[in-house]
Amino acid sequence: MKVKEIIQRFLPSRKGKVFAVIALGMMMGGGALFLYMLRAHTYLTDDPSACVNCHIMAPYYATWFHSSHSRNATCNDCHVPHENAVRKWAFKGMDGMRHVAVFLTRGEKEVIHANDESAQVIMNNCIRCHTQLNTEFVKTGRIDYMMSQVGEGKACWDCHREVPHGGSNSVASTPDALVPYPESPVPDWLNKMIK
User: What is the pLDDT of residues 109-138, one digit of tens each?
Assistant: First the structure.
């Protein structure tokens, strides 16, 4: 069966076809507006302020912003793998969808901790940036996350717990954190109508 025959079978009249085109346009336009309102496009960049699209991330952003890492590293420098572009975007997509699921089901904890897969990525990135320090100055060598899990060394944060986020990072630990929340995508004329 050809596409034209299928369309003719399900939408035999001209009115049905017009209605289908309008309905499809409304769904696509509504979906695009929904993604715009969520600022979904910001997740395609390395801009750290994209992380505060979710307000629960404000203490993490604030503590990173005031750390020495904010001068040289973005969130993606530490939290996303850098072996190749496919692994980076696949991890970013899967991790992002996990975050969406947790936030939509209200499953977020007061203090967020990295799961094992994220912790492995974070530690590999610590090693990637600080290889010279580990091999020439401190002489700890290259210990990866899996080695630290079986007791063959320590994870980076076992000694450097305050880097780069400091403290417990709960909302209670930084109640007055000033972070650059993104501007609302709602147009001014609509805001005036609501008020």
Answer: 777 888 889 999 998 898 888 888 877 777
Residue 92: CATH number of its domain: 1.10.3820.10
Residue 127 within any structural domain of the chain: yes
Is residue 10 in some structural domain? no
Going from the C-alpha of 28 to that of each of 22, 24, 31, 34, the distances in angstroms are 10, 6, 5, 10
Q: What CA–CA distance (Å, rounded) separates 42 from 20?
A: 32
The yes-or-no verdict on residue 172 having pLDDT over 60 is no
Six-digit token pair at 128? 């990637």
Position 71 in a domain: yes
Question: Given this model, what pLDDT does residue 23 score?
Answer: 92
What's the CA gap between 62 and 169, in Å, rounded? 9
Residue with the bigger pLDDT between 20 and 194: it is 20
Given a contact cutoff of 8 angstroms between Cβ atoms, the answer to whether 56 and 112 are in contact is: yes
Domain that holds residue 140: 38-172
- Written as one letter, the residue type at 157 is W
